[in-house]
Specification:
The protein is an alpha/beta fold and 289 residues long. The chain is 35% helix and 17% strand. It has an eight-stranded mixed sheet, sandwiched between helices.
């Protein structure tokens, strides 16, 4: 496995996202868990999820929902088997949902899909050996934005009949865009709508200090989502009295950050170890109010 790292590392910076995932997944272990694919959590092809069930899941196993990135206009759950395996290897029943993306939908419809996926996890996780009660959220890039919005803005889980404190035990954001106005990309302007309403899309604008605890992780070499997004959100949470931890990885860029979850690439950065340590410290924690 160690000899694979020099071969896979250039792939992370040369190939597009799905090609990177395909290359990584070819080396991901297939034992220690089972995959239950294409479970519907809503209507339509993009509202399904895959569940990674670790061996020995016994009704008391924590559940985690992972949202992948892709600039809100790309991505598919099958490409993130490496992430599902990673979390399952640490004892989490892990759901990876697809969600509708641009141009089929625009903000906030992907948040509505994500809320429905979390509601499914809270309601149905026990069928796959997960413990009842709140779940963990994690996400990378656009997926970290989605996870943060569900954690900080009560509207979206509220529409699914839940609340952040009732549904989420803790959240991990990897290289998330949390404070990214003004928009320069014409595609992003289309996705997030008129300028006057774009502040509604920014997680930093919904910090109250009463949300579930968050771990915000970034790479100092990330030029896709600048680390200031992480630092600005963390500062706002601390200012309001909330619970947040921040990790910066020196020399790590945007794609390698999530790639480091994969078994053959974990020497890049201890993303899985640090995420697991944070979540383990909150497994028995009383939900926020």
């Amino acid at each position: 496995m160690k000899r694979l790292l020099p071969l896979l590392l250039p792939i992370l910076t040369v190939l597009p996202g799905c090609s990177v995932s395909s290359a990584i997944n070819a080396f991901v272990p297939s034992s220690g868990y089972r995959v239950v694919p294409d479970i519907p959590y809503g209507e339509g092809q993009r509202r399904t999820l895959d569940v990674y069930v670790p061996d020995g899941a016994d009704g008391g196993t924590p559940m985690l929902v992972f949202f992948y990135g892709g600039s809100w206009d790309s991505g598919e759950k099958e490409a993130y088997r490496f992430a599902g395996q990673a979390f399952a290897s640490r004892g989490y029943v892990t759901a990876i949902p697809d969600y509708r993306i641009y141009p089929e939908v625009r903000f906030p419809d992907f948040l509505k899909d994500a809320s429905a996926a979390v509601a499914w996890a809270v309601t149905h996780g026990g069928e796959y050996g997960a413990a009842p009660g709140p779940v963990f959220l994690a996400g990378h890039s656009a997926g970290a934005h989605i996870a943060a919005m569900l954690t900080l803005d009560r509207q979206w889980l509220g529409e699914a009949g839940l609340s952040p404190c009732g549904a989420i035990r803790a959240t991990v954001g990897l290289a998330g865009p949390y404070d990214f106005l003004p928009l320069k990309s014409e595609v992003l302007k289309e996705i997030f709508g008129p300028e006057a309403t774009r502040p509604r899309s920014q997680p930093i604008n919904f910090v109250t200090g009463t949300a579930p605890p968050m771990l915000l992780v970034t790479g100092d070499s990330d030029t896709t989502v600048r680390p200031r997004n992480t630092d600005n959100l963390a500062a706002k949470i601390r200012e309001r009295g909330g619970e947040v931890e921040v990790i910066h990885y020196d020399g790590i860029g945007h794609t390698p950050l999530v790639g480091a979850l994969a078994a053959p690439l974990r020497r890049l950065a201890p993303v899985l170890d640090d995420t697991d340590a944070f979540l383990r410290g909150r497994r028995q924690r009383e939900p926020c109010r």
